[in-house]
Write the structure tokens for this entry.
Amino acid sequence: MVKILTEVPSHNLVISSEEINHILLGSSWFRALPDYLIEQIMSRANLYQYENGEIIHYRGDESLGIYAVITGSVKASTVSADGRECIFRYLSPGNWFGEIGMIDKSLRTHDARAIGKTTLLTLKPCDVEHLLQSYPIFNRFLALLLCKVVRNAFAMLHDSTLLSVSARLAKRLVSLSEGYGEPHERGVLINLYLTQDDLATIINTTRQTINKRLVAWEKLGWIDAKYGKILIVNINALRQLYADEDE
């Protein structure tokens, strides 16, 4: 039985404890935690709300906690000296981040920015340290969370090295539809504002290349892309694009 979060700082948040638990239990990592550890996490965690575009932390900042996305989204990225942005990933509700700094006690490796009005459940460093000291099994679970990040990094390296631009874009659109998809009468709508520049940085190509692929797929009836929103009409066609190259 999952314990309910009973005390949350009020920042005009309109979300119940039951909804929070439902979102968190959508994560296989969180579901695997022992009930007593879930109870301890929930009793120590606080909720904080961020406005669209607000920075949660910058690359090089002190690590001030581990976070779970409850509502909204978080973009993990870094920006070069000349203003070019590299987007690593988008984090949807139920996803956790910040574990690297909690393990090695070092600085943040990237920027984290709220996309849309975003609510984060936060465990402060002192609370994380208490859990690690009091419940040694939590060390293993933090390591498993880090393993997930490492696996995703290797998958991205594999894709950028071995897959074509079309396959990389198709694979990322399918992934985004799984994390942010909303049912639509014509398919699945990715509920995330994505510019062609965003998509270009995610798969390491140019905006012009992204535009050509999206236009071609619209003509084929696979997608419908308008005003930063992408509707996936034929998800199987997109899956086939990268499945053929992954074999």
In short: The CA atoms of residues 59 and 81 lie 13 Å apart. The longest helix spans residues 137-162. The chain has two domains: 17-159, 163-246.
